[in-house]
Amino acid sequence: MELSACPHHNGEWPKSQPAARAGAHTRDCLQGTSCIIVRSREANARKAGQTVRAAKTRVQITLQSRQDDELSIHTYEGDWAVRNRSAFLVYEEVDEDRRLRTTVRWDPALQELKITRRGDVETEHHFVCGARRRGEYRVSGARLLMETETDELKVTAGAGVSSLELPVTMEWKYRLWMSEESVGYFQLRLHIQEVITR
Questions:
Q1: Residue 29: which residues within 8 A CB-CB, separation 6 or more?
Q2: How far, rounded to the nearest angstrom, does the alpha carbon of residue 104 sit from its chain's CA centroid?
Q3: What is the C-alpha to C-alpha distance for residues 197 and 36, in angstroms, rounded to an integer?
Q4: What is residue 166's DSSP assignment?
Q5: Tens digit of pLDDT for each residue in 76-125?
Q6: Residue whose C-alpha is closest to residue 126's, from 99, 140, 146, 96
Q7: How far apart are CA 148 and CA 135, in angstroms?
Q8: Is the pTM higher than 0.85?
Q9: If both were cysteines, with which of 30, 45, 80, 153 could 50 make a disulfide (CB 3.0 to 4.6 Å apart)?
């Protein structure tokens, strides 16, 4: 069945239905009537364990990183989306001649933060408060195993509602281990807010 989007609920309307009914559906949305068809389809998809995708939101990102007494602050733009009850943040880091695509995934049910970077250097880190998790670092064909030992992990929403609703602030502190040797203690703060265009 060919589908088209409902502009008011980011849902789907079957084109095989009469155009007049689609028009009535749009009027119902504008009048504030519940979009029963769209919402019931999303609810059924969740019950069946299917992926429910949300539209991407353009966001501004402020990353504050502290290692020992050294503090650095960087700003980026990226995309934020929520699907399968997890939040995904994707943005690009440019450092001199290096370009890295960074993906941050926050799973509130597992209370786990996962960060992957792909480019000239590839890394994968997992953060769970009070736990030690394996990760890896790959460069020039070499693969090194690393571990993160997270002391603190906090994700809050500016509106105080859900950690999946913007604006969101993520803060975590961890020690990085490589070959059973500590290579540093890090404190990071990631603030994410929607880009408002006029």
A1: 6, 7, 8, 9, 35
A2: 5
A3: 31
A4: S
A5: 999 999 999 999 999 999 877 788 999 999 999 999 999 999 998 999 99
A6: 146
A7: 7
A8: no
A9: 45
